[in-house]
Write a sequence for this structure.
């Protein structure tokens, strides 16, 4: 609120409806990945391969379209690839009881390598195949924002209003107690990671619609930024705490800060420093909350 007030005084254009829509468009991809990361962190896990899964799904869809297959087939296969990558992460972590951060660091490199292999390191275009997501409802709201809000609402409902969600929270809060209560901890971890992979594929569709292309290096720092956004929204590494709505607000906060820096014409290298500082601060706060919980 302080940032919004200050920037609005300096430049009133900041709170214009058009700029607000631009902010939501800018966080559309990160927002969906943050939903995946938030779900995982509440379940007691984390996944730094989400950005690489997103890219692999996008390159797969592009290749399928290049071979003359219809768009629905490409989208379905892209979503299936994302779900499978998430399932693979979850299966390895659940069955070997390994540290999620380390496993997903390795699988992320595998997915990155496959993306390089499929694309040959070149840009993969979509030739406007996903432009329908840019269509503006009532001439104002792009369809991709509907996707973002729908993913947020469904993920929040899944976590807060279903037996599955309550069990995910229980697994994140104390997996040993959850097991003693009859919850199949490994099964719920695998399902949660599969959903996260699926959401990464949805984020890939939105990303490719916005840019109309994708490369193996498009993953950027999406996973780390999603982690920071979730933490800013009240989720911690301790698991079992936080909400999806909080994670969304954390992502929106990051979007507002980045947009404010653009409005104020802050140099790009300074923006990178600020983004890095936000991630570090978020991790420190998370660790502090986790230590208090113990």
């Amino acid at each position: 609120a302080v940032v919004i007030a200050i920037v609005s005084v300096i430049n009133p254009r900041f709170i214009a409806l058009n700029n607000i829509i631009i902010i939501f468009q800018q966080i559309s991809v990160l927002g969906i990945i943050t939903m995946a990361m938030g779900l995982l962190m509440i379940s007691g896990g984390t996944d730094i391969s989400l950005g690489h899964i997103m890219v692999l799904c996008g390159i797969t869809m592009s290749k399928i379209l290049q071979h003359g297959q219809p768009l629905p087939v490409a989208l379905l296969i892209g979503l299936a690839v994302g779900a499978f990558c998430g399932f693979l992460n979850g299966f390895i972590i659940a069955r070997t009881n390994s540290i999620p951060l380390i496993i997903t660091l390795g699988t992320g490199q595998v997915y990155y390598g496959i993306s390089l292999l499929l694309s040959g390191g070149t840009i993969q275009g979509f030739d406007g195949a996903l432009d329908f997501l840019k269509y503006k409802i009532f001439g104002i709201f792009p369809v991709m924002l509907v996707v973002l809000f729908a993913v947020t609402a469904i993920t929040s409902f899944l976590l807060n209003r279903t037996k599955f969600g309550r069990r995910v929270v229980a697994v994140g809060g104390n997996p040993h107690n959850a097991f003693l209560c009859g919850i199949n901890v490994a099964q719920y971890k695998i399902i949660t990671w599969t959903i996260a992979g699926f959401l990464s594929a949805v984020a890939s569709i939105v990303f490719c619609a916005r840019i109309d292309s994708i490369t193996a290096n498009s993953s950027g720092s999406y996973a780390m930024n999603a982690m920071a956004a979730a933490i800013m929204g009240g989720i911690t590494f301790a698991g079992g705490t936080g909400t999806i709505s909080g994670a969304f607000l954390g992502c929106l906060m990051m979007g507002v800060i980045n947009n404010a820096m653009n409005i104020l014409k802050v140099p790009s290298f300074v923006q990178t420093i600020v983004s890095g500082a936000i991630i570090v601060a978020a991790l420190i706060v998370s660790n502090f909350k986790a230590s208090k919980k113990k």
